[in-house]
Amino acid sequence: MFGYLVKRLLQMTLVLWIVSVIVFLMMSFTGDPVFMVVPVDATDAEIAQARRLLGLDQPMPVQYWRFLVSLVQGDFGYSYVFRQPAMTLIMERLPATVEMVLVAMVFALVISIPLGVYAGANPESKISRFIMAGSLLGISLPGFWVGMVLIYLFAVQWGIFPSSGRGDTAEFFGLRISLLTGDGWHHIVLPAITLSLATTAILLRMTRAGMMEVGRQDFMKFAKAKGVSRRDVLYRHGLKNAIIPVVTIFGLQLGDLIAFATITETIFSWPGMGKLLIDSIYRADRPVIVVYLMLVALIFVVINFIVDLVYTLIDPRISLK
Amino acid sequence: MRITPKRALQLCATSVAFAAVSTFGAMAADKSLTIGLTSDPSHLYPLAGEELSSNIMYYHLYDPLVKRAGDLSFGPGLAESWENVDGTTWRFKLREGVTFHNGNAFTADDVIFTINKARDSIRPDLVANIADAKKIDDTTVEIITPKPYAVLPNDLAELLILDEEYTTETGDEKMDLQPMGTGPYKLKEWIKEEKLELVAFEDYWAGAAKIDSVTFRPITNPATRTAALLTGEVDVIQDLAVRDVERVKSEDKFEVLTRPSLLNIVLAMDMREKSPTIEGPNPMTDVRVREAIARAIDVDAINKIVMNGLATPSDQFVPSSHIGYVDGESFRDIYALDIEKAKSLMADAGYADGFTMTLDATNNRYVNDGQIAQALASMLAKINIDLQLNIMPKSNFWGYIRVPTENSSFIMSGWDVPSGDAGNMYGALFYSRDKKEGYGQVNRGSYSNPELDALVDQADATAKVEERDRILQEATKILLKDIPMIPVHYEQDIYAVRKGVTLEPRVDKFMWAYDMDVE
After folding, report:
1. Is B80 exposed, middle or buried (0-12, 13-18, 19+ CB in 10 A)?
2. Which of A55, A76, B110, B243 is deepest in the core (most CB within 10 A)?
3. Residues of chain A neighbouring B413 (CB-CB closer than 8 A)
4. Could you please report the per-residue DSSP string of B368-437?
5. Is B55 helix (H, G, I), strand (E, B) or coil?
């Protein structure tokens, strides 16, 4: 276990380093951030002054070296656009994103697992066919379209939910959480549904495929013959054996949604960090992009680590090496 | 109604006192307003950067010496009056009894401090026309320009005055989060990307604002912005999407307000002997080819088809409200759409078979910019110009097209002059390159005409506004004849409000709650 942890930590450091190099290289092709800051008719002297103030007057390798040195000292750099620490900008927006993604993932789990188990156990029934057709829609409908339709129906036409924004929040250990207020829940429903749709469909299809595969196994027939209730056959014997790939996908989806919930955030003007990434890309704001992507890499590594731990809980035959 | 800052400027030299409206503000309790903006401000510190949402906040929180009204007329702000003592010296009499939100008194020291602070900031352009500033006494400041400069007061409308003591203590980084000005509103709370709340400053020198509390919400997606208005979550939205105009108009409870903006979409043509994207000699050095291009572009069709009728074809390089505009002259009449004439001009110039060049344009900076570029390609194809499109996001664009324009032959960009004066634009865009420091730095087409240079020099050598206007009008006439650029159209600003909200759109797009009211 200890050796495994050390190996994982080393891998993580390597991944983070590679991400930082790639972002630095990439950003040198995507336009000069100075021109996003100065007025269009700025003179050469004014541009030089801005370049100096932003620390962009040094050659690329020097900039990268400075970045690494500050990083080791815990300084993640300053946004060119906001002139604030990049890490602060991201951290201010992180709770909103995580909260929306968690609610979306809970929606996805609660809907996809039972429906997937049902569809896998009764592949021929009409209801199963209906569920599968619905899941195809969930995968193929683009999120921005679904979001707009939900806003149109539930906010503009029927006035059940607000169209956008995050609503009231309450402080919890210094973090602003909207799940602690009724108004916050009122605001989070539509974006969370929009965000959960594709994940629900994928998880549902994975669960169904796993259940169908497991259903043909001898131990399932044996359990049935032994007189175990149908419910226990499906959930305790069937699902437990079918769920490993579902957990893997769940982990990947979770990371994906936290990192790139951009479209849903934009449509519902949800004050999360995905919008920050897009804005920063448009404005060539390299420090924010670097820190953001490194954080995303970190989130993926951590989630995968947790997924590995969960494997061992579900299936004792798997061990971490 | 025609807007004439020229006249207004003459008026304000005699200092018209502002009618205070404070009594109304005290009577109506708790008026509040929520405004949906297209984006969250990046800054609340005026010296940290410039972009529309930030500008809107700056003018709520701070005041300039000279105030620019919604129709581009200029009047007294923190300065009560001013006079031009000699060619380069201006004396500003400051308003007495003005306090910052923290109670500090506004004095001449704050003005001097702001000017010096700006010089070392990321916005030295704000004080580019100020050589020196001197405190005469607590309420008098003398500003020296490097050369006679008739429109100094217009420039000062963009310089927002900081509190010396507070700004020094707080530091640049924190100033962005904890602003402190003399403006009509104070910051209550700013939750990034979520909402920014302002409350009226009781002791505002022109009387407390009518609306006590104003909340700005950034709603980037245009359809969501419309939805938020229709559901009553916001009272006012900025930039109503063109496709939603009819929908909002059809509801009784809402109103759509439009106003031509100052942003002129222009096409710059390269006039060097050899142009980067054109093989062989550059045809556009010939004025006949430039005229042919101008005549082949159907501005009305672009307006109708690409812009849904929500653009105003531009008749000159600056709008009629500006110093340097020539009454009665219109690019649209001089070079009316005429494909036959354009073809024969091309033939006369020896390019009957046309030529190939590349247009550099953005796809996320101006309204429908990508589609305009495509329309231009099909229009120029009619006179055998094969227009290749090089369309890119704005983050790449400004660096790519930057003078000395080593990549470009034909560039589409926008230009606006909120200072109400053509001189700055002509000096930056049309003055010969590399001849004089601070001139021609954005002359992307390398246009050079000694006559024009001389006129700009003359305009910048007089301290009299009428004189400057007359000279710049001459310059406008030369530019209309030489066609270094083709003006296309002004975008239209579109707002939507709930009925009961009084809002008169400003020409410079800076929404200002102090001028608004709600029922």
Report:
1. middle
2. B110
3. 40
4. THHHHHHHHHHHHHTTT-EEEEEEE-HHHHHHHS-TT-SS-SEEEEEE--TTSBHHHHHHHHTSPTTSST
5. helix
List the single residue in B192, B193, B442 with the smallest CB-CB distance to A40.
B442
Contacts of residue A140, defined as CB under 8 A and 6 or more positions apart, other chains included, come to: none
pLDDT tens for chain A, 321 residues long, are 788 888 888 988 898 899 888 888 887 777 778 887 787 778 888 888 888 888 888 888 888 888 888 888 888 888 888 888 999 999 989 999 999 999 999 999 999 999 999 998 888 899 999 999 999 998 898 888 999 999 999 999 999 999 999 988 888 877 888 888 889 999 999 999 999 999 999 999 999 999 998 888 888 888 888 888 888 888 888 888 888 889 989 998 898 888 878 889 999 999 999 888 988 888 888 889 999 999 988 888 888 888 888 888 888 887 776
Nearest CB among B193, B231, B424 relative to A93 is that of: B193
Chain A residues with CB-CB distance to B244 below 8 A: none
Domain extent at residue B130: 5-209+499-518
Q: Identify the CA nearest to B261 among candidates B510, B47, B499.
A: B510
Residue A269 exposed, middle or buried by CB count within 10 Å (0-12, 13-18, 19+): buried
Q: pLDDT value at position B29?
A: 59
A95 with B188: CB under 8 angstroms? no
Greatest CA separation found in chain A? 86
Residues 275-294 of chain A with CB under 8 A from chain B are 275-276, 279, 281-284
Q: Which residue of B has its CA nearest to A156?
A: B231
Q: Are B316 and B330 in contact (CB under 8 A)?
A: yes
Pick the residue of A26, A35, A194, A285 with the most B CBs within 10 A to test the interface with B by mutation.
A35
| Domain ranges (residues) in chain A | 2-73, 86-314
3-state helix, strand, coil in chain B (%, to 5): 30, 25, 45
Residue B227 near residue A155 (C-beta atoms within 8 A): yes
User: Under an 8 A CB cutoff, do A165 and B399 touch?
Assistant: no
Q: What is the 3-state secondary structure (H, E, C) of chain A?
A: CHHHHHHHHHHHHHHHHHHHHHHHHHHCCCCCCHHHHCCCCCCHHHHHHHHHHCCCCCCHHHHHHHHHHHHHCCCCCECCCCCCEHHHHHHHHHHHHHHHHHHHHHHHHHHHHHHHHHHHHCCCCHHHHHHHHHHHHHHHCCHHHHHHHHHHHHHHHCCCCCCCCCCCCEEECCEEECCCCHHHHHHHHHHHHHHHHHHHHHHHHHHHHHHHHHHCCHHHHHHHHHCCCHHHHHHHHHHHHHCHHHHHHHHHHHHHHHHCCHHHHHHCCCCCHHHHHHHHHHCCCHHHHHHHHHHHHHHHHHHHHHHHHHHHHHCCCCCCC
Question: Scanning the structure block, which residue is given the tokens 């200092």?
Answer: B15
Q: By the 8 A CB rule, do B50 and A39 touch?
A: yes
Instruction: Give me the residue from B192, B223, B402 closest to A271, CB to CB.
Output: B192
Q: Do B382 and B447 sit in the same domain of this protein?
A: yes
At B108, which CATH number?
3.40.190.10
A28 interfacial to chain B (CB closer than 8 Å): no
| B232-262 pLDDT, tens digit each | 999 999 999 888 998 999 999 999 999 998 9
Residue A265 C-alpha from the chain's centroid: 12
Element (H, E) at B144: strand B140-144
Fold that domain A86-314 belongs to in CATH: MetI-like fold (1.10.3720)
CB pairs under 8 A between A and B: 135
* B176:A83 CB<8 A: yes
- Identify all chain B residues contacting A43, using CB atoms and an 8 Å cutoff: 125, 128, 437-438, 441
Instruction: Flag whether B234 is in a domain.
Output: no
